[in-house]
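Hey L., structure's done. Input below.
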Amino acid sequence: MKFTSSPALFVLVAAAFISSCETSTKRENLAFSEKRRPTIAAVNYPLSYFAKRLAGEFADILFETPPNVDPAYWNPTDDQIRAIQAADLILLNGANYAKWTSSRTIPYEATVITSSSFEGSFIKQQEGTSHTHKGGTTSHTHGGFASTTWLDLELASKQASSTADALREQFPEHAESISGKLVTLLKDIRDLDRQMKSVTAPLRGTTLVLSHPVYQYWTRAYDLSGQALHWEPAQKLGTLEIGEIAAIQSEKSAVKYFIWEGPPTEENITKIKMTGLINIVVNPCGARPAKGDFLSVMRENISSLSEAVGQGSSTNTVSP
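Output:
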């Protein structure tokens, strides 16, 4: 039997085929959307750590600053900027932290300033000398607001809570999980805060020599006094630098401790020892640590302070 096709039948078959393809494509797109993990971008390591603790089970955390570069002065590439702009949530520190954010466009609706709840207590910082960090960071001047807010661990807990609030709003289907994880995270931070208060209590009444002007919130939170320099742990200390310490010792009382941002060279340890001061490393942890995480770095800071206080109480001049 011979079959003949009609134009009407062809149109119906073609329409059914197109409809089937469109339905299949929609299903594939929906499946892809359901499988896609959201992205949360953070401008410093503490915020990326908080986000990881709170949302790491369902989201990817974007924090690309190299470990040896200060995120406050990092300059992301155009591709990195585009990746940040495409994130579902962007966590900013506030207090003018991350200088690149003032010159690049960031989606307002996806951005959260985690320090908004305490911006009235930001510390104003006087303009200082321009200098360059090891690791290729461009020359910059510390001015405006002090921005290492998380070194006051009570403020760190507020930033963690603000992060959780933003996550619950953005991802309500995960709200219960986020809230449960926040309880544990806040307990960890508050435990550190209690330990920091205890270990720094003996330092009150002394003048700390600070290698860099990044400890403002730390000294305020724990009732400490400090005189900041602009030194790097690996820079060569000459007559000029040693003279700076001598000037502080002649002007201030009870100068016993020198605070470094990172481990100093053996030569610098020796030179600081020769001035009569005790070396202590208090890592601000703005960048991703080479090992460990935010909690372990803060515990190392507390341990270093405890050891130094023990040395300082046993003798006036001891080796670090």
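The two ends are 102 Å apart (CA to CA). The chain has two domains: 39-192, 201-314.

-- N.
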